[in-house]
């Protein structure tokens, strides 16, 4: 009943309703474009490409693009080049003085960084595009008859369309962020992941209803485990360590009375790095796939369900959790800002001592957070050992689940803020009208 009332409240707010409808419309456009194949490829002969991207690391890439990777679509690269460019720019911001200056320049600096990210996205697409075309032509077992056009014509047209597809996806994401609800880039990735959900679940149902598969009872047990994992993921995403902050007593000029110092909190997230450690770790784990032909010893690291793959994967996630948290949570700057605003952490001197304390707390909570993140990331490989199909197991953890949970929480919070502001405005209007009637 509360859910129905919330929906009614949402559609009573004209601005919020328009934002939601715009978001849904742009997502629909993205999904439609993901089904459009590159010119010069026969879409009826892509079965081999889909089979070769079913599971494994290529299956992860296909999941992030909503199946566009296996369809040889104009959106085959999806929004991934933009994410890669964003990561590169963020990391360069640590060492490049020009980018550091832009980060401090407020809105104007942010716009310049966004522009740099866009140009870098195009450059990355121009590198990834030929790699993808070469890959589907030489490595995926497609028959020669699948390519209706050959030579330079196919290469040039495919490069132009793959680049245009990525730029269009980037534009859609930015429009959703500016004019719609939620983070547009994250929403596009989430929608792509969810697009694989019905097929993955249907495959699991068919597998379990076959003779010896366990039947409906096994499916119910898997769903219960899945919901428990989702709840644990929500806890990981939302868990924070609150650092109490006290502000100096001030004298209110209006009534010449002392006002007690306000007590607030600095929320330090248990998983401050989000999904970035997983993305970094997966990027490195793609190297064995690229080098496997030259160095056969690395072939054991291409199986995402293998022991050594997951051991190395988990270690990399823990390492990158510390690394990314260190570069994105500037405890020194937090301590200086606190000092300038006459605030302090009780029991610690403002400045360096406070910074050291914040850094110590952050290091301590990052350790269990990184362990939890690593365990969640390798959970799909463990689930597979119990007879779960590969595509369905991907929804039990890893980047897919964390992104979906994070985006869902962020979007719900934005909608709730609109609803709260609407109720507040309604109370203000009611109060004004009551005062007018009393006069």
Automatic annotation (TrEMBL):
Subunit structure: Component of the Sec protein translocase complex. Heterotrimer consisting of SecY, SecE and SecG subunits. The heterotrimers can form oligomers, although 1 heterotrimer is thought to be able to translocate proteins. Interacts with the ribosome. Interacts with SecDF, and other proteins may be involved. Interacts with SecA.
Cellular component GO terms held in the UniProt record: plasma membrane
Chief location bin: membrane
UniProt name for this protein: Protein translocase subunit SecY
GO biological process, one term: intracellular protein transmembrane transport
Keyword Transmembrane: yes
Signal sequence region: none
Domain of life: Bacteria
Subcellular location: Cell membrane; Membrane
Cross-referenced PANTHER family: SECY/SEC61-ALPHA FAMILY MEMBER
Coiled-coil segments: none
Gene from which this protein is expressed: secY
Protein family (similarity comment): Belongs to the SecY/SEC61-alpha family.
Function: The central subunit of the protein translocation channel SecYEG. Consists of two halves formed by TMs 1-5 and 6-10. These two domains form a lateral gate at the front which open onto the bilayer between TMs 2 and 7, and are clamped together by SecE at the back. The channel is closed by both a pore ring composed of hydrophobic SecY resides and a short helix (helix 2A) on the extracellular side of the membrane which forms a plug. The plug probably moves laterally to allow the channel to open. The ring and the pore may move independently.
Organism expressing this protein natively: Tenacibaculum holothuriorum
Pfam families: SecY
Entry annotated with the keyword Cell membrane: yes
Membrane topology type: Multi-pass membrane protein
Keywords tagged on the record: Cell membrane, Membrane, Protein transport, Translocation, Transmembrane, Transmembrane helix, Transport
Membrane-spanning ranges: 20-41, 79-99, 119-136, 148-172, 184-203, 215-240, 270-291, 311-330, 370-388, 394-412
Highest classification ranks of the organism: Bacteria, Pseudomonadati, Bacteroidota, Flavobacteriia, Flavobacteriales
């Amino acid at each position: 009943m509360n859910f129905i009332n919330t929906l009614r409240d949402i559609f009573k707010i004209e601005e919020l309703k328009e934002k939601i409808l715009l978001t849904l419309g742009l997502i629909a456009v993205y999904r439609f474009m993901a089904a459009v194949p590159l010119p010069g490829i026969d879409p009826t002969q892509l079965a081999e490409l889909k089979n070769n991207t079913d599971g494994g690391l290529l299956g992860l890439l296909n999941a992030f693009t909503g199946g566009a990777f296996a369809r040889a679509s104009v959106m085959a690269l999806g929004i991934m080049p933009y994410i890669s460019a964003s990561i590169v720019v963020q990391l360069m911001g640590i060492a490049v003085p020009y980018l550091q200056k832009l980060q401090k320049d407020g809105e104007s600096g942010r716009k310049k960084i966004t522009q740099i990210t866009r140009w870098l996205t195009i450059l990355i697409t121009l590198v990834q595009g030929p790699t993808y075309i070469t890959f589907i032509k030489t490595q995926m077992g497609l028959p020669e008859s699948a390519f209706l056009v050959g030579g330079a014509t196919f290469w040039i047209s495919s490069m132009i369309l793959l680049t245009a597809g990525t730029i269009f996806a980037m534009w859609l994401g930015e429009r959703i962020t500016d004019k719609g609800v939620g983070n547009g880039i994250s929403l596009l990735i989430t929608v792509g992941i969810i697009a694989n959900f019905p097929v993955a679940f249907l495959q699991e149902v068919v597998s379990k209803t076959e003779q010896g598969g366990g039947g409906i009872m096994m499916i119910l047990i898997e769903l219960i485990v899945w919901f428990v994992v989702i709840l644990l993921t929500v806890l990981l995403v939302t868990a924070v360590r609150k650092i109490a902050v006290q502000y100096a007593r001030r004298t209110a000029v209006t009534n010449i009375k002392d006002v007690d110092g306000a007590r607030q909190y600095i929320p330090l997230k248990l998983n401050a790095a989000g999904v970035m450690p997983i993305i970094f770790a997966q990027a490195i784990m793609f190297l064995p796939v690229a080098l496997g032909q030259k160095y056969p010893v690395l072939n054991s690291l291409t199986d995402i369900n293998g022991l050594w793959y997951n051991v190395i994967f988990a270690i990399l996630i823990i390492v990158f959790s510390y690394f990314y948290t260190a570069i994105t949570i500037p405890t020194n700057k937090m301590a200086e800002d606190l000092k300038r605003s006459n605030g302090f952490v009780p029991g610690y001197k403002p400045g360096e001592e406070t910074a050291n304390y914040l850094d110590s707390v952050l290091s301590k909570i990052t350790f269990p957070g990184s362990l939890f993140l690593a365990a969640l990331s390798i959970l799909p490989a463990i689930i597979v050992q119990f007879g779960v199909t590969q595509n369905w197991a991907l929804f039990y953890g890893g980047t897919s689940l964390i992104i979906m949970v994070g985006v869902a929480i962020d979007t719900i919070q934005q909608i709730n803020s609109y609803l709260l502001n609407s109720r507040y405005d309604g109370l203000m209007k009611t109060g004004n009208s009551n005062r007018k009637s009393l006069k």
